[in-house]
Amino acid sequence: MTETFTSPAFTPPTRFAVPGRIAVSEQTAGAWQTATLTEIRRETPRAATFRFAVPGWAGHLPGQHLMLRLTAEDGYVAQRHYSLASAPDDHGHIELTLDHVDDGEVSGWFHTVARTGDRVEVRGPLSGFFAWPGDRPALLIGAGSGVVPLMSMVRHHRARGLAVPLRLLVSARAPEDLIYADEYGAETTPLFTRSAPEGVPVGRLAAAHVAPLLAEPPPGGWEAYVCGSNAFAEHASRLLVQAGQPVERIRIERFG
Amino acid sequence: MHVTRGFTGRPRVTHAGLPPGQYDAGDDWPVLSAEVTPDLAPAEWTFRVDGIVERPRTWDWDEAQALPASAYEGDIHCVTGWSKFGVRFGGVSLDAFLDAARPQASATHAVAYSHTGYTSNLPLADLSGGRAWIAFAYEGKPLAPEHGGPARLLVPHLYFWKSAKWIAGIRILGHDEPGFWEQNGYHARGNPWEEQRYSGD
Predict the structure, then answer these.
(1) Structural domains of chain A in order of their starting residue, each with its CATH number
(2) Is residue A57 packed enough to be buried (19+ CB in 10 Å), middle (13-18) or exposed (0-12)?
(3) Pair type for strands B133-138 and B152-154
């Protein structure tokens, strides 16, 4: 782009748009890089984590995603967006956690064909909107594999020993479906919608989970990050608004 | 070309309407808005055209509905990879609004903005000449809130993030000014046939 902007950017006379959190490099988004699969870890019966070496990886912020593509021998290409699961400090390595989607041509390849040493292509990191630099108090709400970008934030928070408040509400159908189950600490409240461990109630995310966090928000208030299916995102974001969270401080990433 | 070992992919479909890198979403219509879906009744909805125009103007719901009806039947393409074939939107051609507001000769671009504050930038040429609509209906029914109802911009020949949901107005400009996703690394124009997904594509 050669256009120069001489006037202040136009701001709509409406409710304020949620701005992106960081400036995004045009160069890193543009180039496809080779990613070599170095490790596969099973998370749940339907989800596994895939670790890659990407020597030229420019680094990312928690919450960012990448585009990944697979190429068949006849030149057919399939590309998908995936959230980064790993914290940003893992130099030259990134991790993705992928659900095995029914009939998914890309996730299907990862779950049934891929082995260490395989090479795929990635470009990114992409988009600053859902990124969390670790500055503002973070209220994270995810369901299913929607927890993946949020886990990058939790890991970043831990790795850096950040003092800023961070809470995670993560919804799964059953204990065996809870991704990263062994990694959660006091910051996390798991919710189970179909079956739960002994002594834990079964039920979906409700006002009772959100209200106490918003009744006593940290100084400066929460930045809310919601990730999951559209139905879950609609439900969770409505609960947040009803509990008093400002709409311009709710960032949503929906599957699709 | 970096062939991925053992990857065959879906059965090949040769669909002339499928841009490069896209797949057919079939009956699905994913919702990908980054903000909270607003609770916006038709009676509260307004649409404004201003900026470098002869006659800035705001339409309310009834005034917009009174304009000549115009439908789009065709395909839509999302930057995340899905395309949807043979959809039908009902609404009003954006030309009807632009003809009333009369952009000045120096007008080159526009920022479309939503009642949520979402923005997307477009060349004026992509918004005029029967290529853009204000859509109120989908498949004969009122447009659902999560898809931008009561009214969204529809610019089907560009990636769908340009088609701002809950459309509130079009600001006509004499220069290009990146919108919400464009500030987040997405392409300024977003032509799916040239696969203009990200800045630099």
Answers:
(1) 24-126 (2.40.30.10), 138-255 (3.40.50.80)
(2) buried
(3) antiparallel
- Residues of chain B in contact with residue A18, where contact means CB-CB under 8 angstroms, are 34-35, 117
Ramachandran quadrant class, B81 (left: phi over 0; alpha: psi -120 to 50; beta: rest): left
A13 preceded by a cis bond (ω within 30 of 0): no
| Reported ipTM | 0.90
Alpha helices in B102-184 (DSSP H): 124-127, 180-183
Low-confidence ranges of chain A (pLDDT < 70): 1-9, 12-29, 256
Residue A233 makes CB contacts below 8 A (sequence gap 6+) with: A226, A227, A252, A253, A254
Distance from CA of A138 to the nearest CA of B (A): 16
Residue type, A82: Y
Arithmetic mean of pLDDT over chain A: 91
- Comparing CA positions, the residue from B87, B88, B91, B89 lying closest to residue B27 is B87
Other beta carbons less than 10 A from residue A205's beta carbon: 21
What are B2-31's pLDDT values in tens digits? 999 999 998 887 788 999 989 999 999 999
A71 closest CB neighbour out of B1, B12, B113: B1
Contact B9 A234 (CB under 8 A): no
Please state whether beta strands A138-143 and A223-228 pair in parallel, antiparallel, or not at all (unpaired).
parallel
pTM of structure: 0.92
Beta carbons of A7 and B175 less than 8 Å apart: yes
Q: How far is CA A26 from CA A69, B119, B126, B187, in A?
A: 19, 20, 24, 10
B185: left (phi over 0), alpha (psi -120 to 50) or beta: left
The whole-number pLDDT of residue A126 equals 87
Identify residue A166 by its one-letter amino acid code.
L
Contact criterion met (CB < 8 Å) for B176 and A1: yes
Please tell me the distance from the alpha carbon of residue B136 to that of residue B148, in angstroms, as a whole number.
9
